[in-house]
Amino acid sequence: MATSSTHVPSAAAASGLRGAIAELWQDKAAAVGLVIILLLILMAVFAPLIAPYDPAAQAITARLKPPVWMARGTWDHLLGTDNLGRDVLSRIIWGARATLTIGAVTCLLAATLGTLVGLWAGFAGGRTDTLLMRIVDIQVSFPGIFLILLVVAMLGPGIWTLVAVLSMTNWMVYARLIRGIVSSTRQTPYVEAAELIGCKPGRVIFRHILPNLVSPLLTLAILEFTNIVLAEAAVSFLGFGVQPPATSWGLDVASGRDYLFIAWWLVTFPGLTIVATVLSINLFANWLRVTADPEERERRFARAEAAKRRRRTRGANA
Amino acid sequence: MMQAPILSVSGLAIDYELSSGGLFRKRRTLNAVNDVSFDLFPGETLGLVGESGSGKTTVGRAVLRRLGVAQGKIIFDGKDITHLRGEELRRLRSRMQIVLQDPYTSLNPRMKVRDIVAEPLRVHGLAEGSEMVVAELLERVGLSRDAADRYPHSFSGGQRQRIGIARALALKPSLIVADEPVSALDVSVRAQVVNLLQDLQRDFGLSYLFIAHDLAVVRHISHRVAIMYAGRIVEIAPSEEIYNRPIHPYTESLLSAVPVANPKIQRARQRIIAPGESVDIADPPKGCRFHPRCALATQRCREEEPPLLHKTPDHSAACWNRPA
User: Fold this and answer.
1) Distance between CA B70 and CA A311 in Å, rounded?
2) Residue B241 belongs to what domain range?
3) Which chain A residues touch B112 with a CB distance below 8 Å?
């Protein structure tokens, strides 16, 4: 089975984007995930056009309105309003900007920095390794909130300060993970073979070691994305992050906490949005991980083919 | 074989670093191989035999300059490569290659066979026309041309080892270090791969440093055999000579451990057992390293280490008690 299925994925890869889309469609959950991610990004980009209200506009007369399907709900505020009469839906739409930017950029920066340090430490080994990992230890034991206060005091609050600070406090976990994988991969016979063939270190790292890091990196980055969203909320809540009138999902969740028992929608809807985002990324990343591994990719392809054949025979029998 | 050796190793010693030493620690090393000398001639196979930990793999890695050499000299094709570094060492890689033991881990699972076999060509700037070369190599090692488009996981162990051999051959090396190339394979496949190695040797004039612990395979493929014990060569001689007239007591006990297929002969044979465990090379005994297990050991063996001496013109052994 493996033999007969081998040519098709590579043929699909050859036809480029269309092939990739066709392959993605095999995994419906991942396709849905990607669609949701794209919709969220579009929502953030076109926030001014989509949002029914200014997210910062207060309306004292319409405070704490529940969502439309509840007894006191109105069609004016689909997802209700908060304690200052601000429209929850509009805030979610606008909040996507800060949250997605901070989450994505921070994850990217932290992962890049951590991966580089981890690769360096794991590949060089010996004293370099010891030195780099001690730096990581120091950074880990350093209280993050103190660092944040320090940096915010220097740079002033804002989205980019937040990105910088959160990257600086979150890269270590990548470094540790990557370093472990690299130093064990370095011992594998195929890496030794590559070195004995005469591959330069750069080629060994990028061709032979880096591909092994794709799936753990994706997994970790997704876990970290949630962490970053929550960390951003905490920092914003303290007044050092996203500054009103701007908003973010995390900030909404954090500030809605006080009204949890009288207005559950303040926490629930931004919270659900975060869940939907992370879940979508997760589904898509899972597909990406399988795609990056030839063996699993062929297995998936074989499964899809088998399912297709089953459907066909069932159709013929009916 | 009166030509110049392709590889000449003399007085080789290799230390492993146990701890690199830091501010408060002392640098500690383990002497894995000591005073190893041998010559390998063009088109010849030298079998390197010994139990686990005897240092045979270490010697192979040192020849390929994967390990630092503490002492001694490695001369390859008339050139001293003992301390070659950087770009020069990288270029040397095209002339000496390795076939690794485990075919399941020695091929990158994320690369197609085409890329695996073509990689040596690419990194040495010979990518042009590599497509043809790869197809020819695959055919030469007994795989079909369309194997190139597949990933290693769709091949069996024997086929993977063939891919590994094709990769080693890509740069037309003159020396191949085969590090237990068949010990991870099924017995049924073993013979095929050994025969392939022999065919390739005949066709390309390759020299093999064939590291193994399977005495039958070594006897079949090797022209000469060197027996290692605890980081030293204890005996070296032409293959038939060593199997028929072993000199060193360790070789004798090693050979007597190989079962004979005929049960009548097998029952009549006398097993020569070396009691005790293999030597701890971190704390080797004084004198001959084999003396605690040797039936012939005398006072001299306990005090003085025997040198590797010619007992007959082409048969050397390191034993005080076995004159020629």
Assistant:
1) 67
2) 7-95+173-317
3) 294
Residues of B in Cβ contact (< 8 Å) with A10 = 149
Count of domains for chain B: 1
CATH code, domain carrying A150: 1.10.3720.10
CATH number reported for the structural domain that contains residue B186 in this entry: 3.40.50.300
In a domain, B138, yes or no: no
Peptide bond into A66 cis (omega under 30): no
Domain that holds residue A262: 2-317
A83 SS3 class: coil
Residue B28 backbone phi and psi in degrees, to 5: -120, 135
Domain count, chain A: 1
Q: Which two tokens stand for residue B141?
A: 């090692």
Chain B contact residues (CB < 8 Å to A):
20, 22, 64, 66, 90-91, 93-94, 97-98, 100-102, 105-112, 119-120, 123-124, 149-151, 153-154, 164, 167, 171
Compute the Cα dihedral for A78, A80, A82, A83 and give only its sign.
positive
Q: What is the C-alpha to C-alpha distance for residues B57 and B99, in angstroms, rounded to an integer?
A: 12
pLDDT tens sequence for chain A (318 residues): 344 444 444 444 446 788 888 888 888 899 999 999 999 999 999 998 988 888 888 888 878 888 888 887 788 888 888 888 888 999 999 999 989 999 999 999 999 999 999 999 998 888 889 999 999 999 889 887 788 888 888 888 888 888 988 898 899 999 999 999 999 988 899 999 999 998 988 899 988 998 888 888 988 888 888 788 878 877 887 777 888 778 888 888 888 888 888 889 999 999 999 889 989 988 998 888 888 888 888 888 888 888 888 888 887 776
SS3 content of chain A, % helix, strand, coil (to 5): 75, 0, 20
Interface residues from chain A to B (CB-CB < 8 Å): 2-3, 6-7, 10, 126-127, 130, 188-190, 192-200, 203, 207-208, 211-212, 292-295, 298
ipTM rounded to 2 decimals:
0.85
Q: Is residue B309 domain-resident? A: yes
Instruction: Give the one of A196, A200, A211 whose C-beta lies nearest to B98's C-beta.
Output: A196
Nearest to B110 among A127, A197, A211 (CB): A211
Residue B26 belongs to some domain of the structure: yes
